[in-house]
Automatic annotation (TrEMBL):
Species whose genome carries this gene: Malurus elegans
UniProt-recorded name of the protein: MET27 protein
GO molecular function list: S-adenosylmethionine-dependent methyltransferase activity
SUPFAM superfamilies: S-adenosyl-L-methionine-dependent methyltransferases (SSF53335)
CDD domains listed in its UniProt record: AdoMet_MTases (cd02440)
Chain ranges of the Methyltransferase type domain: 61-154
Lineage summary: Eukaryota, Metazoa, Chordata, Craniata, Vertebrata
Domain of life: Eukaryota
Pfam short name (any one): Methyltransf_11
Transmembrane segments: none
Length: 228
């Protein structure tokens, strides 16, 4: 089973190489239906499982927050101090209607910095937007910048055929940051039935779904200065 034709066309238009303003316009129009086709609970569950303390007081940034699906899952797991950013005004309007965010800001990630000071958040999520034609993998240092030392970063990407080149580049960037000591990997979990496929060719072994990956990293603490 695949997506209905109208929704499939919207998804395909967003994921292929259309210009950024056009992709954002499509997201604006898609916002009302967007919630039917994502699985953000997988990322929220991974983050909540790893979080070392009661999360109610933890400040969390939901990057590319969409309509607020990740926030809903995080709220169910005890997170209360939620901030969100997204490049689509339509998505932000839907997210605002949930009442789950303390702050929402418009930000086109990859073209402008996140509207937050350095080391501001206990955790950062970026669910669903790391993909071909969407957010470039070069944003990873910016996500790290706003994360506190010892804080967590939860990221996802898809494993469908049209995203494999992007995924390979993303994982090279992830590994490079780990080798440099910027963060340490806690989880890289491949998940089947991640979301509905847009075409039969994209689906995993004819299931009608694609798989995806949840990554969880912890930002390394700043090493103490050595005394002379």
């Amino acid at each position: 089973m695949v997506l209905p034709a109208a929704v499939r066309d919207r998804v395909a238009a967003v994921h292929r190489g259309s210009a950024l303003p056009e992709r954002l316009r499509l997201y604006d129009g898609w916002a009302a239906r967007y919630e039917q086709y994502r699985a953000p609970h997988l990322a929220a569950a991974s983050l909540a499982f790893a979080f070392p303390a009661p999360p109610a007081g933890a400040r969390l940034l939901d990057v590319a927050c969409g309509t607020g699906l990740v926030a809903r899952e995080l709220h169910r797991r005890g997170f209360r101090s939620l901030h969100g950013v997204d490049g689509s005004a339509g998505m932000l309007e839907r997210a605002r209607s949930t009442g789950l965010y303390q702050e929402l800001r418009l930000c086109v990630l990859g073209r402008e910095p996140l509207p937050a000071p350095a080391e501001h958040y206990d955790a950062v999520t970026l669910v669903g937007a790391l993909g071909e034609g969407q957010v470039p993998s070069t944003v990873l240092p910016e996500l790290l910048r706003v994360t506190k030392p010892g804080g967590f970063l939860c990221l996802t990407t898809r494993s469908n055929p049209s995203n494999l080149r992007y995924k390979a580049g993303l994982e090279a960037e992830l590994e490079q940051l780990e080798r440099s000591g910027a963060w340490q990997k806690l989880l890289a979990q491949e998940v089947e039935y991640w979301e509905r496929a847009t075409t039969e060719e994209e689906s995993t072994q004819g299931t009608g779904y694609i798989s995806g990956v949840v990554y969880l990293y912890q930002k390394c603490p700043v090493p103490p200065l050595e005394e002379d």
